[in-house]
Amino acid sequence: MKKLITYQIDSFTKEKFKGNPAGVVVNADGLNDYQMQQIARELNNSETAFLFPPDSTDCDGVIRYFTPNTEVPICGHATIAAMYAKAIEEKLDSCILRFKTKVGILPFEIIKKNEDYQIIMTQGSFELSPPFDADVTQKMITALGLEKSDIDEKCPIQIASTGHSKVMIGIKSRTKLNSLSPNYADLAHLSKEINCNGYFVFTFDSNDKDILTYGRMFAPAIGINEDPVTGNANGPLGGYLVQNKIADFKNNEFEFNGRQGEKIDRLGIIKVKVSIEDNKPALIQIKGDAVVVFRAEIEI
């Protein structure tokens, strides 16, 4: 009988039942793919992270991520949750841990402050695909419940990725953002056509000088109709804003706060930092708080 130390963590918040919940199994050594999938389905968070010992000398551990119905290569909020759980479980001091993911070995920074922790996740390499043609764009707008007039003209609709791609859709109004009721079946079907599972709808319509964007993220093709606060959407958004020259930046750095989860009462904030070389994104990091909802043991 193996006892799996399991956490439920809310990421990008210090308030329980807000932000984005993730499961974390901190001692997953010995679990097979089927067992991890079953645990993720049982916990029923958008993602559950599984931590393994290092399998080579060039990393401090291995991390894998499962939704309730599939494995995904990388996940922002589950990384924040996993490193937070590891820090608490092992009573870590400030440090940088290099974890092997499906998109390569990434450094995750644990910052200890006032007997609590913040986590900085360095994301994978930034990639930006060409804007969609008129036909695909119209299908997407219709499936999301948008009109052409809702779209922010300075924001091309295209896929951005730091390892787990998302379509970026900029719109004019936060009221419209919060009123969206997408056709999830149509979005899931379109995902197969464009080979991208996530749709991140965002707006600059903010009444808070410390918040640049509000967003909502839909990924019905992988069983997530709406994700509360998405690291792998807000991070690539930073790269998208820099590469498309939408964002103002100086000293080769661009930082902003993105807020997400307002409509579904799981509000959270992600701090995004983009390091820039030759006017292009060179390194993208996200920083977030977290809070433990529960710690438990699963016996299998």
TrEMBL record:
GO terms for molecular function: isomerase activity. Belongs to the PhzF family. This is PhzF family isomerase. Signal peptide: none annotated. Pfam families: PhzC-PhzF. InterPro entries: Phenazine_PhzF-like. It comes from the Bacteria. Keywords: Isomerase. Coiled coil: none annotated.
